[in-house]
Design brief:
eight-stranded mixed β-sheet; 182 residues; 21% strand
Length: 182
Amino acid sequence: MKARSFRLDDAHPLHARLSYELSVVAVDPLDAVRAAGGWMFDRVRAGWKVKVLVPQRYDSRPLDILGVRACALESNFDLVTADPAALAVSAQAWGMDARMRRDVVRAVERRAIEVSVWGSQPSEMAGRVEPVQHRLSPAARAFKAHAMAAAGGDPATVTATEEFHSCALWYPSDGPDLISVS
């Protein structure tokens, strides 16, 4: 019996199968940079592919500084729940799209991916997430300050930690990057 052969690389490029992806939904680049810029930068440095989805076209320079790709939310909505390893959502963006809320709550219920929310905890997430924080690396603080300035924010407001509500499921070998606040 002869085995059939096929080219695995044609179906799914190797780099796509071996990398972690974080999809971030925000109302604009400043929202993403202010709340999660350091975390996104540190994940990029750890080898993650990070995409920020916003409802309309904006200047992508603040996100470029962090090594993050900007995408239009409506034309790339499938990226929100298309099997990223992690998803982060602004509480402001949460209120903008019922379809997104439904899909994110389903992902949390299935415990399929790490889901983090910044800002006020949405009522649909009560009891499903806990307060966590990310301690920014010195490089993340520096790059976030430059990204804040490019987005029209105040670089002096960059702090050593960023806070989220999360059902963090992914933990690096040297410890979690999202640490429980309690």
